[in-house]
Amino acid sequence: MYTRFFLILSLFTTFSIYAGNNQHANTNNINITAVIMFLIFISITLAITYWAAKKTRSASDFYTAGGSISGFQNGLAIAGDYMSAASFLGISGLVFASGFDGLIYSIGFLVGWPVILFLLAERLRNLGKYTFTDAVSFRLKNLPIRSLAACGTLAVVILYLIAQMVGAGKLIQILFGLPYSMAVSIVGLLMICYVTFGGMLATTWVQTIKAILLLFGATILALAVLNEFDFSFNLLFKEAISSHHLGESIMSPGGLISDPVSAISLGLALMFGTAGLPHILMRFFTVKNAKQARSSVFYATSFIGYFYILTFVIGFGAIVLLTNNSSFLDDVGNILGGNNMAAVHLSKAVGGDIFLGFISAVAFATILAVVSGLTLAGASAISHDLYASLFCSGKAQEKKEVMVSKISTVILGLAAILLGILFEKQNVAYMVGLAFAIAASVNFPILFFSMYWSKLTTKGAFFGGAAGLITAILCVLFGPIVWVDILGNANAIFPYKYPALFSMSIAFIAIIIVSYLDKSEQAKKEIKAFDNQFVRAQTGIGADGPVEH
Fold it and tell me: Is the pLDDT of residue 372 over 90?
């Protein structure tokens, strides 16, 4: 086991040295401080992974850390999982590019948490075991529901992974002088290492450490920005207006999203997509009971809300301090590395190379923590929902199930590397918005109806969820980003960037119509079984660790 970890660490060190000799790299631009902090963080997290690997003996340990995580730590880990590259790099980059409009993402990300708190957290913990699919299939047929939920999970995970890989690739590319493709590969290798060997326990500790570092680093960065303007928001906004090429328009909505359809669609995706994210929902099974699940949401919401206030300050600070500084701009006046790197460059502008190294290491830790959680959720969908529950009819040996999960991790890691290279030019917050759209169109409708609507049937859930998934994917493929920007076509077939308004509506309508039309004997049994499900969801009777009121 030691050999494997030292191998990964040595690979990372080799890549760093290679950067200094690569013909495409400029050794003068390599941030030695950042490299050292990267290596320190990686060494610590690999040690945690080794420790977690020794404690991971069962499927429960691998998927849910044996249910041993406290509400506070789980809330901090959820915040660490949720405050991704899209939040730190993407949203601050959007505020830098569009001003006020960048807040639409942070507000949307945040308002989804009350939905989880009041509608889902407790019931989910009482009904499920390893994944949210366990709760959905409680009274519905295993085969169609788990198959669909697994496909929805994988679609969300892959899109989310793309965003994180793009952010990580750009970060390492700038700081190490490495080619973008190699930078993405490094992240992929480390991600595979964490999940394969350490499971949920290692992932939780990496996410917790990362959350603390990110909150501390973002706080210092925001305070440093405000210090430049005598802690006056009026002065900050005044200077931002005079520095930005859009002028006063950065203080009004409409620059980023100009039509109401797109605005509503994005809002729905961010609000209800949060309640359908598999890697977030999975975290509620790591606590011992439903009471701790509720407290997890409370702590997570507090940390996340505070963090998004900081991104707003960071984005506007970047407008003033970077726009007129040629050292952070390329030959045509664009920020080096794209808008996603605004927060990273800002750290150098206010704190020099040492602070840049720290913030870069924090951003890197952020990405690694998120991709680890995502990959574990995707691997769980394959191993637990498909292999163990379907192919083996729930009779799979735990060792074989965990082995399938580890193989799936490697496959997902390689796929993430390839897709991260393909989507290099995309804003990471936008890519996450697409993931949220699919989560809101597939996972959330099925999860919501399964818990709150007694008339839901297997056919209704399957056809409704499938309709939402297919609609969302088609809208993305034929929309402006993929059809025009990626594939190079002149005009998009689907005119809107965000599909949630359409795909989510279709999913809800299809679920209701098909469920009402289903008069089969199986449907009658499923409707009748709702009462038993309701009792368990409310009381926790029959679940591991019943709720404490």
Answer: no
Angle between helices 398-422 and 342-380 (to 10 degrees): 140
Q: Where are the domains of the chain?
A: 7-425
DSSP 395: -
Per DSSP, the three-state class of 96 is: helix
DSSP-based three-state secondary structure for 319:
helix
DSSP per-residue codes, 8-75: HHHHHHHHHHHHHH-TT--GGG--HHHHHHHHHHHHHHHHHHHHHHHH--SHHHHHHGGG-B-HHHHH
What distance in Å separates the CA atoms of residue 545 and residue 257, rounded to the nearest whole number?
45
CB 502 within 8 A of CB 471: yes
pLDDT digits (tens, 9 = 90+) for 234-267: 898 898 888 887 788 788 776 666 678 878 888 8
- Measured in whole angstroms, how far is the alpha carbon of residue 51 from the centre of its chain? 25
Residue 548 DSSP symbol: -
Distance CA 412, CA 426 (A): 20
pTM of the model: 0.78
Interval 325-358: pLDDT, tens: 878 877 777 787 777 788 888 888 888 878 888 8
Q: What percent of the chain has a predicted confidence (pLDDT) above 70?
A: 84
Confidence label for 26 from pLDDT (cuts 50, 70 and 90): very low
Residue 433 pLDDT: 73
Least confident of 61-65, 215-219, 328-332, 399-403: 61-65
User: Which tokens is 166 given?
Assistant: 């793009």
* Burial of 318 (C-beta count, 10 Å sphere; 0-12/13-18/19+): buried
Q: Return the structure tokens found at 425.
A: 């030019």
Terminal Cα distance for the chain, rounded: 43
Nearest to 277 by CA among 437, 104, 427: 437
Taking the C-alpha atoms of residue 240 and residue 236, their distance in angstroms, rounded to an integer, is 6
The residue with greater pLDDT, 155 or 547, is: 155
CA-to-CA distance for 332 and 339, rounded, in angstroms? 14
Which residues contact residue 68 at a Cβ distance below 8 angstroms, ignoring those fewer than 6 apart? Answer: 286, 288
Percentage of residues of the chain with pLDDT beyond 90: 8
CA atoms within 13 A on the CB side of 347: 27
Residue with tokens 């994944």: 131
Residue with tokens 């799979």, as numbered in its chain:
396
Strand partners, 358: none
List of residues 6+ apart from 478 with CB closer than 8 A: 492, 493, 494
How remote is the C-alpha of 199 from its chain's centroid?
17
Quickly list DSSP for 149-180.
HHHHHHHHHHHHHHHHHHHHHHHHHHHH---H
Q: Does the structural domain 7-425 have CATH classification 3.40.50.360?
A: no
Residues 104, 266 contacting (CB under 8 angstroms): yes
Residues in the chain: 549
When pLDDT is averaged across residues 17-45 and rounded to a whole number, the result is 61
Q: Do residues 359 and 213 touch, judged by C-beta distance below 8 A?
A: no
